[in-house]
Design goal:
Shape of chain B: elongated
Largest interface: A-B, 20 and 11 residues
CATH superfamily of chain B: Phosphoribosylformylglycinamidine synthase subunit PurS
Order of helices and strands of chain B: EHEHE
CATH architecture of chain A: 3-Layer(aba) Sandwich
Structural class of chain B: alpha+beta
Distance between the termini of chain B: 5 Å
Largest sheet of chain B: 3 strands, antiparallel
Distance between the termini of chain A: 8 Å
CATH architecture of chain B: 2-Layer Sandwich
Shape of chain A: globular
Number of strands of chain A: 11
Strand order of the largest sheet of chain A: 2-1-3-4-11-10-9-6-7
Order of helices and strands of chain A: EHEEHEHEEEEHEEEH
Helix content of chain B: 25-40%
CATH class of chain B: Alpha Beta
CATH superfamily of chain A: Class I glutamine amidotransferase (GATase) domain
Strand order of the largest sheet of chain B: 2-1-3
Number of domains of chain A: 1
Radius of gyration of chain A: 16 Å
Number of helices of chain B: 2
CATH class of chain A: Alpha Beta
Strand content of chain A: 25-35%
Radius of gyration of chain B: 16 Å
Helix content of chain A: 10-25%
Largest sheet of chain A: 9 strands, mixed
Oligomer: heterodimer
CATH topology of chain A: Rossmann fold
Strand content of chain B: 25-35%
Number of helices of chain A: 5
Number of strands of chain B: 3
């Protein structure tokens, strides 16, 4: 099982992501954004979190033109699995690989804390180790995590079971930290091979560090 | 020619920064303020005098990079 992890100038979660997947038994490779190909034996491609290009202009706006993104689009069109975490989610929406956009948090604050999330749909490879309605405790750390999509787009997301995770309280009731439409924290594309979420499952791998709920999530990809 | 591109959130997309600025203006007792929007301005020179071509090129720049049309509108101003 091979996980390739994209690295742009300003990415800063690539080594956490590498550590998380290696802990679960995967082999990993970090792929610099100038690469025009992704490793042929890749089973999962992760667009890691951080601040690609310093978030200049908009989060993810400049990264989408990096040479590697052409290869990413080809990989996706052939059914390859992609997971975008935090800034990776922003890069995927900017590239049009996922619908919607991530705006500045409604409070205008950078939010960094553990937050509970409710699993809305597990009919996908990412969350199939969890049950619908499960609540997981995963860290969030973002300034631009306010998910926006218009009403039409939102209807489509629900109709195709693309809404995966919502911010919630410990009982699973909606609790919205950043102003996201319908408290949405994570989605996938229609074909269910591109996944994006603002919370960081790769930072929830050890109970001693607050939570290991990320293990169940990331394990979904390692079959 | 000089190009000025103004990018702001679409009408109907909540502008939290605009709202915060509006509150600050209220608390300074400026009256009659409404519809505060915070946007960004991108200014550059373009090496052409052909206004039609310039507008076409800059529109493409906005669609591709300068604005995210899912949430933002843009306005282009060309100054010869």
């Amino acid at each position: 099982m091979k996980v390739s992890i994209l690295q742009f100038p300003g990415t800063n979660c690539e080594y956490d992501t590498q550590n998380a997947f290696e802990q679960l038994g995967a082999t990993t490779e970090i792929v610099w954004h100038k690469s025009e190909t992704i490793p042929a034996d890749t089973n999962l491609l992760v667009v890691a979190g951080g601040f690609s290009y310093g978030d200049y202009l908009r989060s993810g706006a400049i990264a989408k033109f990096s040479p590697v993104m052409k290869a990413v689009k080809e990989y996706v069109s052939k059914g390859g699995k992609v997971l975008g975490i935090c800034n990776g989610f922003q890069v995927l929406t900017e590239s049009g690989l996922l619908p919607g956009a991530l705006k500045r948090n409604e409070s205008l604050h950078f939010i960094s804390k553990h937050h509970t999330l409710k699993v809305v749909n597990n009919d996908n490879v990412f969350l199939e180790n969890l049950n619908e309605g499960d609540v997981v405790n995963i860290p969030i750390a973002h300034h631009d995590g306010n998910f926006y999509i218009d009403q039409e787009g939102l209807k489509d997301l629900y109709a195709n079971n693309q809404v995966l995770l919502k911010y919630s309280d410990a009982q699973g009731n909606d609790k919205n930290p950043n102003g996201s439409v319908d408290s949405i924290a994570g989605i996938c594309n229609k074909e269910k091979n591109v996944f994006g979420l603002m919370p960081h499952p790769e930072r929830a791998m050890e109970t001693i560090l607050g939570s290991n709920d990320g293990v169940k999530m990331l394990l979904g990809f390692l079959k | 020619m000089k190009v000025i591109v103004n990018v702001s959130l679409k009408a109907g997309v909540l502008d939290s920064q605009g709202k915060a600025v509006h509150h600050a203006l209220d608390s300074l007792h400026f009256e009659g303020v409404s519809d505060v929007r915070v946007g960004k301005q991108i200014i550059f020179k373009l090496d052409t005098q052909d206004e039609v071509k310039a507008r076409k090129d800059v529109t493409q720049m906005c669609e591709d990079l300068l604005a995210n049309t899912v949430i933002e509108d843009y306005e282009i101003e060309l100054i010869k």
